[in-house]
Amino acid sequence: MGKEFLDLMDPDDVKQIIGSLNIGRRVETVNLGDAHQRVLAGDVYSTIDLPPFDRASMDGYAVRAQDTFGASEDDPITLTLIEKIRAGDVPSKKIKKGTCSEVGTGAPMPEGSDAVVMVEVTDIRENRVEILEAVTPGTNRALRGSDIEKGKFLLSLGTLLTADKIGALSAMGLKEIPVFAKPTVAVISTGNELIKPDEDLRHGKLYDINSESLANAVKSCGCVPLASNIVKDDYKSLKNKINAYKNADIIITSGGTSAGAGDVLSQVVEDMGEVLVHGISVKPGKPTLIGTLPGENVDVVLFGLPGYPVSALMIFHGFVAPFLREIAGVKELMEKRDGFLLPLSRRYHSARGRSHYVLVKIEEDIADPILKDSGAITALAEADGYFEVPKNVEIIEKGEQIKVMPLSGL
Amino acid sequence: MGKEFLDLMDPDDVKQIIGSLNIGRRVETVNLGDAHQRVLAGDVYSTIDLPPFDRASMDGYAVRAQDTFGASEDDPITLTLIEKIRAGDVPSKKIKKGTCSEVGTGAPMPEGSDAVVMVEVTDIRENRVEILEAVTPGTNRALRGSDIEKGKFLLSLGTLLTADKIGALSAMGLKEIPVFAKPTVAVISTGNELIKPDEDLRHGKLYDINSESLANAVKSCGCVPLASNIVKDDYKSLKNKINAYKNADIIITSGGTSAGAGDVLSQVVEDMGEVLVHGISVKPGKPTLIGTLPGENVDVVLFGLPGYPVSALMIFHGFVAPFLREIAGVKELMEKRDGFLLPLSRRYHSARGRSHYVLVKIEEDIADPILKDSGAITALAEADGYFEVPKNVEIIEKGEQIKVMPLSGL
User: Rounded to an integer, what distance in angstroms lies between the CA atom of residue B324 and that of residue B337?
Assistant: First the structure.
């Protein structure tokens, strides 16, 4: 049994190291119908004029505006109705002096017309339309290309495709678009004590938690978890398993990082590649390891998280998630959306010199810290989010506003 | 061409009507691996004790605490090492006076031991362990069931299954769980002018936007969109299409709700069921229709949205999304997460007596209202969210804090 003490690194330094890591982004083409929550891999320019033709923007009558000048409720001007044009129709008659055509919203403007009089300020008797209000040229008409002209910039590379953005792409008649391929993440739980669901719970054994919880946390960052695995906590098993995932973009292990009995991960990573971080000055999650392994094209990044489920998830949120979001291209949006300020339910005391991640339960808009150890499963069941206590803060007073980060994501 | 004016209803009254609607919830069983972002359909009680056995919560030596009393760095107490127990092992030897066993974090406590001395405060020479610090009974030990006992409450019906909650369920060794089936939503675009992607853009035609954007907005509320459709804006086509979706939970149409030319939806709904709302005092989206149709078991709820894409999405977010989130069981969580306060970039003037929904672009933490008409596709491309101006507010000053709601979701 070794007694190797970890050389703890400052969280900010660790974040800088993570920030300098790089993985190649791949591009793939998807149908617009499968593009929800995907990220545009190129700038999109309009392929058509929008609207594609001069159109009515109200239900009413297409007129020559000058024919309506002087019209009022007391002194209406009467025009002759020559055609009815609904959205989707093609007008066949030209508007000449003294005439008008009925138009529905979205209908093409007939030749010769330059404005639409709303139906609400007209009266109609057979084919005679009384105009009760004058209009100026351009009223209730949208010119071809007035929203966007063909060839103009529409959406930028990196846009997260929510419903509204997919709507904008649909307007171009696009069927497929290029998006970033989702980064692949292998999730490996290490530990001789771990068993799979439905297996018999013999003495000394535990159902594996981290492979499911981390796989789902990976999904919430816009990445694809590869099949989850349990491996024995010995050098050869772990090395073989890690070797099997050299085609993944990222490998996340949990367990096997503590100084002391069973710390084999650092040895495996050292032998296969490079250990960049081993030990972070945070609580929980101190024994975290970060390294790189030579991959097929670029290096595979490996995050070795602690075995305790709460520690593993907190380190995931604090260090791994920002990296995954970055390479998946969803970082900016997620951070725009992340976090809400709530008052703390009680005084919280933190050890100076180490950042703390604290799970909270939200009740009646107050954040209540969950003060359980990081092996507690019930902490996961109760948590609505977490907050971070920076390393130079020792006490947060009751009622002070804290920024609660959600545990959910995409 | 009719001139039927809409009888505008107050938005709060409309929300009350929507709140009184009901659809039956269905339950289905899914594998834990497919449970991400699903909603628990029943309370979950622990099926086992957690931890399932007395375990060490640190790397170190399992001892009888009383054997360590008086130990200090200057005056260590020496114990005889009788066994090495790693996580996953089953201890075979009992701790008696003067003996100890090496334990890894998570290893079962050997019989007779009641505390763990951390490896950091020990020295070892062959099988002689020097204890440099006394411990009290229970130190660094977690008793069986101390986190949660078998049969105790773990997670409640209605919980959204994020990574952490799935972790808590994994701890029970569960393979499958009951979740609410996702409500099904048929999305129908009406309009003679609408064409599908890749079709030829003839004069007077437009690529359909709403069926894609609304289908994706439906997904973001935890519901399943059924295949999207375009139908002609005539009574028979629309009625046939609506009839085809009587097995859906909800039908969303867009277009065909304006007073004037082509308003056939209200007639169809009136003939097939009941119109509850036709016209809301909001901008954009005034001509919105809400109705119910007799379904196979319970009524099908129909939302008839305006045809303009911005109007359709704004009414979706303001009125339809809260209902979908409610019946999908994700409302509470989404609303916890929704909305952030930002200063407005410029004075905004709104017409009194009508609620306004305004799209905004966020730049450098300032919300800039997008002042385009609701037919503008570029507004969708630029938008980062929207805010609501209540009906009794006429002016929001530059710099005033507004609550920006995201356009994204699950």
Answer: 16
Alpha-carbon span A230 to A212, nearest angstrom? 11
Residue B261: pLDDT band with limits 50, 70, 90: very low
Helix, strand counts (H, E) of chain B:
9, 28
Sorted by sequence, the CB contacts under 8 Å of residue B400 that are 6+ apart come out as B343, B344
- Please give the full DSSP string across B73-140, using - where no structure is assigned: SSS-EEEEEEEEE-TT----S---TTEEEEE-TTPBPPTT--EEEEGGGEEEETTEEEE-S---TTTT
Pairing of the two strands B77-85 and B99-103: parallel
Distance in angstroms (rounded) separating the CA atoms of residues A36 and A161: 6
Residue A377, pLDDT above cutoff 90: no
**Nearest residue of chain A to residue B126 (CA atoms):** A1
Q: Tell me which residue of A259, A257, A258 sits closest to A5, measured CA to CA.
A: A259
Q: What angle do CA B121, B123, B128 make, to 5 degrees?
A: 130
Provide the token pair at A70.
């002087």
* Residue B66 DSSP code: G
Please, are residues B195 and B206 in contact by the beta-carbon 8 Å criterion? yes
Write down the pLDDT at residue A405: 83
Fold of B27-50+148-180: Molybdopterin biosynthesis moea protein, domain 2 (3.90.105)
**What dotted CATH number matches B339-406?**
2.40.340.10
Assign domain B11-26+181-335 to a CATH class: alpha beta
Which residues of chain A does B207 touch, with a Cβ-Cβ cutoff of 8 Å? 170-173
What is the DSSP annotation of A15-37? HHHHHH------EEEEEGGG-TT
Give the right CATH number for A11-26+182-335 from 3.30.750.24, 3.40.980.10, 3.40.830.10, 3.40.50.410: 3.40.980.10
Measured CA to CA, the distance from residue B3 to residue B10 in angstroms comes to 22
What is the number of other CB atoms lying within 10 angstroms of the CB of residue B33?
A: 18
B201 in contact with A, Cβ within 8 Å: yes
pLDDT band, very low/low/confident/very high, at A212 (cuts 50, 70, 90): very high
Contact assessment for residue B226 and residue B183, using Cβ atoms and an 8 Å cutoff: no
**Once rounded to an integer, what is the mean pLDDT over residues B96-118?**
96
Nearest chain B alpha carbon to A339: B337
% pLDDT > 70, chain A: 94
3-state secondary structure of B252: strand
Distances in Å between the Cα of A184 and the Cα atoms of A24, A50, A215, A302 are 12, 38, 11, 12
Residue B67 confidence (pLDDT) above 80: yes
Beta bridge partners of residue A206, listed in sequence order: A194
Please report which confidence band the pLDDT of residue B1 belongs to, taking 50, 70 and 90 as the band edges. Answer: very low
Kindly report the CATH number that applies to the domain delimited by A27-50+155-180: 3.90.105.10
- A137 CA: distance to closest CA in chain B (Å): 18
Rounded distance, CA A317 to CA A359, Å?
11
CATH 3.30.300.20 is right for the domain spanning B55-142: no
For chain A, domain boundaries = 11-26+182-335, 27-50+155-180, 55-142, 339-405
Q: Does A306 touch chain B (CB under 8 A)?
A: no
Answer whether A184 touches B (CB < 8 Å). no
Which tokens in the block code for residue B241? Answer: 């299409």
Task: Mutation target for A interface from B38, B130, B170: give the one with most A CBs within 10 A.
Answer: B170
Please choose, from the candidates A252, A315, A324, A251, the residue with its C-alpha nearest in 3D space to the C-alpha of residue A288.
A315
Round the average pLDDT of chain A to a whole number and report it.
Answer: 90
Mean pLDDT score, B59-67: 97
